Amino acid sequence: MLKELHLQQVGPADHFDVEFTNRLNIFTGDNGLGKSFLLDVAWWVLTGNWVDQTAYPQKKGQENPKINCLISIKKNIREYQSHFDFSEQQWRTLQMPPLLKEVIVYVRVDGGFSVYDPARKRDHAYNFNQDTLWNGLKQNGKVLCNGLIQDWVTWQNQPNKYPFQLFSNVIKKLAPYPDESIDIGEATRVSVEDVRDIPTVNLPYGNIPITQTSAGMKRILGLAYLLVWTWYEHKKASELRQQKPTNQIVLLIDEIESHLHPRWQRVILPAILDVACELQSTMKIQALVTTHSPLVLASLEPSFDEEEDRLFLFELQGKDVTLNEIPWAKQGDTVGWLTSEIFGLKQARSKEAEIAIEAAEAWMRVSDMSAFPENLRTQTQIHQELQKVLPGHDPFWPRWIVTSEKRKSGLSGV
Questions:
Q1: pLDDT in the model for residue 179
Q2: Which stretches in the chain have pLDDT values below 70?
Q3: CATH code of the domain covering residue 86
Q4: Is residue 343 assigned to a domain?
Q5: What percent of the chain has pLDDT over 90?
Q6: What is the average pLDDT score of the chain?
Q7: Which among 18, 19, 281, 309 has the fewest CB atoms less than 10 Å away?
Q8: Contact between 216 and 262 (Cβ < 8 Å)
Q9: Which helix (H) or strand (E) segment is 15 a member of?
Q10: Looking at the structure, do residues 194 and 326 belong to the same domain, yes or no?
Q11: What is the pTM of this model?
């Protein structure tokens, strides 16, 4: 498990220092402040592999670029350090960590996945794009993964139903509601140009080949397959090595809500944590998750454990990027989350509505209106704008109407 990560002169800030918890670590904040970057570095220190580009150091500053981490291995916590070699343009590890026992899965925002399995390929990771995930991954003439389409059909038709039943159960857990359940249908031929039988899913409105499902559905099916495939192949490799399978998994998930409808966003993270129990009842899971979704955070309110879970916020303060742990506090609904310090919106409405309400509140306080646009300085102007930008049931209306009537009555009595 990853315990700490310390970055110096690399990334958007001069220093990043993070202490992780052993279960759920949530990272949020504005775009471009380093959330995906942090997951890329976490993946590298755990696996020794970069998914795409190496993290290059900053060109400013006098300190030497460093990436240090603390990793828990067999109940012992060890420190590992690396520095950037400018002449070779790569990171040099001063002390390589021993082989980890955890399976590590990186769910990337671009739809790709990366897997590190200590029981299989110990010095490299498996990197999937959308095509290789579905159609298979090969290297040097060897088949590393059959791909979602072939494995799905194989699992469904083989006498040993273990992987198929596990796969089916995981898919059902990741579905948002019983009335939107995803049931597996029979494979069918779809095209004269593709001789493969294509898996299908039974949705409330009919039977659909998986190649014709939505982007959100494909993300869920891909995630379910990747988790089951990783665990199934880990068990097979462990058998060949005559060793016990691991009981630990590390999940790195970037923008978990990507492509998902709000109904799915509200259940996806608790469902993924629950899926670990489907793989193995004694499984321990550490998750590093980035999100922009207030619904994802709201979904954690019943289960967030302040002893085991942490919430972090990336912020831009002046020209400096900071990363701080934020005390967990229930916000109730998405409006509460949107207007909390996590997202920092003044109003959970349109920008135009926010300005109109600010003008209305200033007028009700009998404040100086000169700072507002010329079309929002009188009661009549503000009322017309509120009618334009607010629905009739907006909770701001009663307060505005009552105050306006009082102000009118007070003026008429003078």
A1: 64
A2: 60-62, 74, 94-99, 122-123, 177-180, 410-414
A3: 3.40.50.300
A4: no
A5: 47
A6: 88
A7: 281
A8: no
A9: strand 15-19
A10: yes
A11: 0.90
Q: How much is the pLDDT for 367?
A: 87
Q: How far apart are CA 312 and CA 341, in angstroms?
A: 11
Count of structural domains within the chain: 2
pLDDT given for residue 297 in this prediction: 94
Strands 103-107 and 113-116: antiparallel
Position 413 scores a pLDDT of 47
Is 269 among the domain residues? yes
The label of the residue with tokens 């026992």 reads 101
Contact 231, 261 (CB under 8 A): no
Domain check: are 59 and 196 in the same one?
Answer: yes
Q: Specify whether 250 is located in the same domain as 362.
A: no
203-205-210-214 Cα dihedral, nearest 10 degrees: -100
Q: What is the CA radius of gyration of the chain?
A: 26
**What is the rounded CA–CA span in Å between residue 409 and residue 414?**
9
> Domain check: are 205 and 268 in the same one?
yes
Strands 320-326 and 309-317: antiparallel
Residues in the chain: 414
Q: Is residue 172 part of a domain?
A: yes
Q: Bridge-partner residues for 321, per DSSP? A: 316
Residue 357: which domain range?
351-412
Q: Is residue 394 assigned to a domain?
A: yes
- Say yes or no: 105 and 195 in one domain: yes
Task: Give start and end residues of each alpha helix (H) in 210-344.
Answer: 215-240, 262-265, 268-279, 294-299, 334-338
**What interhelical angle do 148-157 and 162-174 show, nearest 10?**
120
332 plus 367 within the same structural domain? no
